[in-house]
Design goal:
Elements: H1 4-19, H2 24-31, H3 35-41, E1 42-43, E2 46-47, H4 66-77, H5 86-96, H6 103-106, H7 110-121
Antiparallel strand pairs: 1-2
Length: about 130
Amino acid sequence: MTSLPERKALIELIQQAQAKGARLERACNEAGICLRTYRRWFKNGKIQADQRPTAVRPAPTNKLTTQERMQILELCNSPQYSQLPPTQIVPDLLVDRQLLCPIYRQLDWPFFLFCRSIFSSAVFRL
């Protein structure tokens, strides 16, 4: 992303070059942007700010509900699967036809897999 001050500086340089007789397309190429980008940045005599950070993005249609997420976590933390990695849980659930959705996405919560790996590999000695 190009910041607004950087855009202003580039557009000023391009406009100075154009005022001194350079073609707009050549000036844009020298500045390292294409003509389309220049026109998108400079509309109606004003320099436009980047709209991507403020864009409204809808939630994905395949996003799991909180209930589904909790159901997966309960299943993975059940005594039967608590000591197994997702690579062994998924095939077992496929055989039983209980697989609800991709477990890998749910177990990718940053802290969840880390905790499972620490506690499963820990050896407590007295």
